Amino acid sequence: MGLSSLAANLPMKKSGDMEQLTDNVYLHTVPFEGYTITGAVVVAQRRAFVIDTLISPQAVQPVKELLADVAPDRRVVVIDTHHHYDHVYGNAAFSGSDIVAHRLCPRLIREQSHTSDESVPPEPPEGVPLPTITFGDRLTYVDGDTTLHLIHTPGHSEDSIVVYDDGQRILFAGDTVEWPLPEFCQRDGYAPFVKTLRQLKQLPIDKVVPGHGPVTGKEIIDANQRYVEGIYEAVRAARENAVSRHQLELPAEWFLPGGVTLDATYLAAHKANVEWAYDDA
Question: Rounded mean pLDDT of the chain?
Answer without folding.
Answer: 93
